[in-house]
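Project standup — Tuesday

K.O.: blocked on the structure for the chain from last sprint. Re-posting the sequence here as requested.
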Amino acid sequence: PFDELDPTYQRFVVHPPEGADVLKVSWRDNPDFPPELKKELLHDKEHDYNKYLWVWEGECLGNYEESIIRPEWFNSATDAHKKLGFEPRGVKRVGFDPADSGPDAKAVCCAHGSVVTDMVEWLDGDVEDAINRAFGISYDFDADVVTYDAIGVGAAVKVGLKDRIGPKKIEVTGFVGGESPRDPDDAWIDGRFNKHVFRNLRAQWWWYLRDRFEKTHRAVEKNEYIDPEELISISSSITNLSEIRAEICRVQRVRGNNSFIQVESKEDMKKRGMPSPNRADSLVYCFANMPIKLGKRKKLNYRSMSIA
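H.V.: unblocked you, prediction finished:
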């Protein structure tokens, strides 16, 4: 299929009928797989990885030319903490994308340090129900900080969460994507300043998330040492992970008549027939409002070290 959210793929692969037996069969199951096709496979894997995944590994193709986060980066990030040998540690954060009753879903993402442990989405209920559920998840997770979308119905979230949190020490902070980039006079890359690179705060933090995925891909595939605090690992225990990958990898960069990095809005995505990226946004909020440590890189084999 072209896309993970294709109705047929969803019907028979992601959510198969009760009683159905679903097996994934590939070239690996063919004892007579010819060497000529193996050469084609290796060529595609080296020169067009997305084509390789589609043709040879049964993955959906998708259109990711302008995607901020590439599918292969997401694959590398899946259980990256296990692949690279580091444990979840540090601040426990929750990202919350609220919504009122209606067609737009609510979403919550939980991360312990660099490791994303859970990501959920639901449609039922109004904003008060959403606040209750987000608080319950945050409380059970023993979160240190909750970051929420402060636009629209999010204006009621801070008061609602603080009322429920009471004396428990959970920091509640809003995220306004339309604000100017944070630390505008800090250099980003090649001497360019944040205020000259990012259109707004949403673009800045989507790109910081992109950097985490790209660095994780380098660490997993090229065995390059990068501080785990700069990486991201997505737990394979999260339900509907293929849907989440499709959602995250669909969000695109907007190319206008300027040099700023800009991310398409939910409204832009709806215009091209894409569902609202609620879980993807909750992931962005989860890693927002935190410093980015840019440690000096050095070549070191993760698998030979123990990171407590």
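K.O.: great, moving the ticket to review. Residues 292-308 have pLDDT under 50 and may be disordered. The chain has twelve helices and eight strands.
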